Please model this.
Amino acid sequence: MSTVLETEEHQALRAAVAALGKRYGRDYMTTVIREGSHTGELWAEAAKLGYLGVNLPEEYGGGGGGMAELSIVLEELGAAGSPLLMMIVSPAICGTVIARFGTDEQKQKWLPGLADGSLTMAFGITEPDAGSNSHRITTTARRDGTGPDADWLLTGRKVFVSGVDIADATLIVGRTEDARSGSLKPCLFIVPREAPGFGRNQIDMELHAPEKQFELVLDDVRLPADALVGDEDAGLLQLFAGLNPERIMTAAFGIGMGRFALSKAVEYARTRQVWKAPIGSHQAIAHPLATAHIDLELSRLMMQKAARLYDDGDDVGAGEAANMAKYAAGEACVKAVDQAVHTLGGNGLTREYGLASLITASRVARIAPVSREMILNYVSHQTLGLPKSY
Model:
């Protein structure tokens, strides 16, 4: 893929991460999945090289960059067949939120570990009865006593939370009651993995990935006052400060996976001969692959725009671009994987070529963290000014 629009530093980062990814590759990932283990070796090496914390402040051990750099890391690992899904959650969402809104104590406690990979944090927002409607979140936090030092009691349920089993804590989106209006407002809480009353059940998924999915049950989980991240009255701002990076990184995840599938298909189409010439010489094979490449390139451009806007502090502009990038990348990823499988024919469904498992995995970029239909709603309302249908 062309990188002429990127700085020399970004091109160097891309090349270095690509080299790391190549040393692990798809075989490493499939072995980890088959054994039911985790990508600890790749995670640790990426952290040691400074890639995991490239977006976090230098004063806390990070690289001092932003989403532009972190999205490059995830995209290139994905293009090598070894994406690290927890990068979307731990450094991108949780690290960003804590870096922007956390107290000095929270930053000192969490950011160095998130940057060097020794600490991992999960993120819990989705609820079984709320779906895509974040206004229906029912996980609630209440003070056990009065005064700013009173403990919090957190109660509720979350679903489809990635990596809780390996995360040291989970950043939970709850709601507190506004003392003035009585309405519920979103707030974010850091919940340690072993907190009493914090239960988890693994969800049986058809998706084969190193990162497991969990349902969480919070039964009056007692948290200290300083478990609240940032200002109780700025919860919505803080929430979206994490959701925009989530969308940018999901786009990187999809683009990387699409590039991996496309590269396998192109290699096959160059060498596979059925008649007198490689099958890639036939337009019925070549044109769909070219279209997939174009779609992935266009998705990356929007992802780069979203990352630039976010890193420049334009949360509103980044919100629109991040949603568009996530939508475009999800569609491009699914189409690239689908076309790659069709290019290989029966071989595309064999374990040897490693594409069949991506048929399910590619849907992640379409469904999570927000469905494509909700993105279309966002663009309809926020960009086009059309009235809401709900």
